[in-house]
Amino acid sequence: MEYNIEVKELLLEEDRLTLTVMGTVTDDIINSHFVSKPKVILHFINKKEDRRIPLVLSNVIHTQGKCYFSGRYTYRLDLLFWKTREEFLPFDLYVNFGFVDYYEEKIDVDLKPEQIQVDNRKFRYKYKRNHYTFKPDKKAILCSPFRRFVVKLFNMLLKVAEYLIAIAMLPLFFIDALLHVSGVMRMPARFNDASHSKRFLAFMLWRFSDVSTCKVSLWTFKRWLFVRSFGFFKRFRKVKKNKITFISLRRSDITGNFAFVYDKIKDDKGLDIHFILNDHTISFMTVKEIFDFTKSCATSKIVVLDEFTPMIHYICLRKETKLVQLWHACGAFKTFGFTRLSKPKGSPQTTNNHRSYDYVTVSSTFCKKCHSEGFGIATDNVVATGIPRTDVFFDEAYKKQAQEKFYSAHPDFKNKKIILFAPTFRGTVKETAFYPTEMFDIKAVCDSIPDDYVIIVKHHPFVRDEQPIPAEYRDRVIDLSAESELNDLLFITDVIITDYSSLVFEASLLSIPMIFYAFDLEKYINERDFYFDFKQYVPGKIVYSLDELTDAINKEDFCTERISPFADIFFDNRDGKATDRVVKLLYDNLK
Question: Which of 342, 348, 458, 527 could pair with 56 in a Cys bridge, judged by C-beta atoms 3.0 to 4.6 Å apart?
Answer without folding.
Answer: 342
